[in-house]
Design brief:
- This protein has 44 residues and is an all-alpha fold.
- It has a domain of 25 residues.
- It contains 3 helices and no strands.
């Protein structure tokens, strides 16, 4: 039964890959994400 249980972070990783495969491969830094959010806020 224990073998059927996925690793703790496996579901989270699968969800991240499904949403943004490129981002998951590039290992986006928090700094770049924050910079992008600030740019988007400036447009509004």
């Amino acid at each position: 039964m224990e073998e059927a249980a996925p690793a703790p972070d496996a579901p989270a990783e699968a969800a991240a890959d499904a949403e943004e495969p490129a981002a998951a491969q590039e290992d986006v830094s928090l700094e770049s994400i924050l910079a992008d959010l600030k740019r988007r806020e400036g447009r509004d």
